[in-house]
Design brief:
Number of helices: 11
Helix content: 25-40%
Strand content: 5-15%
Radius of gyration: 19 Å
Distance between the termini: 32 Å
Structural class: alpha/beta
Number of strands: 8
Shape: globular
Oligomer: single chain
């Protein structure tokens, strides 16, 4: 029997442990979502390790019709088994990281003997996490699947980006974030959530261009690296706001952004790239940012331009008891990315062929 024969897309969301309650196994699906319950190196608020389970729960309340990619879900969006050993390791190493961060905030140095061993343990654990995610991504990519990742903090997609780079073809990264994430070994942690784009520049030459959108909280060294690197293009929040104040439409701005991207695009979506009302509990909230609809329009424009999304992540969602907005926003951004990724790879089904406005 076909998987969809008994599935009612108009019915109640199924509590089956899968994103969006969809019935597909990874073998049946075109797109596989892997999860990374991890937040060892976060430098302010914690909780991103709880995001995958919270987003799965929130996604049950999401209706499947999407005007930008109607019917695309029928090609299959599957949830890979979550490796909860990552969560256990994250919880164990977080206490070491917190001690290091507290030591530094009190004026200590990363070279002090009191923290060197803790930094080493954290770095070794992060290497193992990266290898875990890279191995998962490699396995699904080898089967011809599209792969997306649900974090976790922003360090978690590094293994997926590495796995895509290992396939040899060049690509660009559309990086939506409040932060540049271009710090070198922030707080002594080589694979810090604040260092992922620095590490990608260093280690993944196939990432030919990083286009940063909405950034508004970064240090002098990051600004200098962004200015000096031919592989980085920055559209920070100040520039975006000035363009709007001077009369440029968001559509025109998006077309300027997309022009900087090559044909193959990886999307790294840190939820704090959005304005704080959409993600009030994210670990490092920053005033300003994109609206939900601005972000979706930019993703849509990327696909409408003929570019192909080869992978993506959604990170830095922090769920909180008694508040559903963070997980709900994360689930909806995730679903938009799933649908647009499938459409950009030629996956249209049924009503999508006639109604899609891509």
């Amino acid at each position: 029997m076909n998987t969809l024969d008994t599935f009612d897309p108009n019915g109640v969301g199924l509590d089956n442990g899968a994103y969006f309650g969809l019935p597909f196994t990874p073998d049946e699906a075109r797109l596989v979502l892997i999860s990374a319950p991890w937040d060892v190196t976060v430098s302010y608020g914690t909780g991103t390790s709880e995001a995958p389970d919270a987003i799965i729960e929130a996604s049950m309340q999401l209706d499947l019709y999407d005007a930008l990619s109607p019917g695309a879900w029928r090609r299959g969006i599957a949830t890979a088994d979550i490796d909860y050993s990552l969560l256990e390791t994250s919880q164990r190493l977080r206490s070491d990281a917190e001690r290091v961060i507290r030591h530094l905030e009190e004026g200590g140095s990363v070279a002090d003997d009191a923290v060197c061993r803790k930094i080493r343990r954290v770095n070794e654990g992060c290497v193992q996490m990266n290898e875990n995610i890279r191995a998962q991504a490699r396995a699904w990519l080898a089967q011809g699947k599209l792969v997306g990742l649900v974090g976790g903090d922003h360090s978690t997609p590094y293994g997926l980006v590495q796995a895509l780079g290992e396939r040899g073809e060049g690509f660009g990264i559309l990086h939506i974030d409040a932060h540049c994430d271009l710090r070198r070994a922030y707080e002594g942690f080589e694979y810090s959530h604040a260092s992922i784009m620095y590490n990608v520049l260093r280690d993944v030459p196939q990432a030919e261009r990083i286009v940063e959108v909405g950034v508004r909280d970064y240090c002098d060294a990051e600004a200098e690296l962004a200015r000096s690197s031919e592989r980085i293009r920055m559209f920070d929040d100040t520039q975006l706001s000035a363009a709007a104040f001077e009369g440029e439409t968001w559509g025109a701005t998006c077309r300027r952004i997309v022009t900087e991207l090559p044909e193959r695009v990886y999307v790294s979506f840190d939820i704090d790239g959005l304005s704080v009302e959409y993600c009030p509990h994210t670990g490092t909230p920053v005033a300003g940012g994109l609206t939900f609809n601005q972000a979706v329009y930019l993703l849509h424009e990327t696909v409408r331009s003929g570019r192909r999304i080869i992978g993506f992540d959604v990170v830095e969602v922090v769920p909180r008891p008694g508040s559903s907005i963070d997980a709900s926003t994360g689930a909806r951004i995730l679903y938009k990315l799933c649908g647009l990724t499938l459409v950009s790879n030629g996956c249209r089904c049924g009503e999508a062929d006639e109604q899609s406005i891509i």
